[in-house]
User: What shape does this take?
Amino acid sequence: MSKAYPSAIKREVLALIIERGISYREAAILTGASYSTVRRWVREAEVRAVVKKDKYIVRQLESRLESAVKEREILKRAVIIFAKELGIRWSSN
Assistant: This one.
């Protein structure tokens, strides 16, 4: 069974590794957490960062797609209007 650590220890470990660049082993020694726990925390933090970035990218792409769809509909209507003005019969399939 793994030992439960306060979230403050976890934050401290991540800060030591990410901000100060110390090794996992040094962070484990300084905070009293085990080496494997420190590795797991860092791995989980990295996964969360990737997921957060991926969600941001997906939101951006969804927004761009929505804009492109709206622009396409506007352009379709404009083509129909111009075609009518020129007397061209337009089929909007």
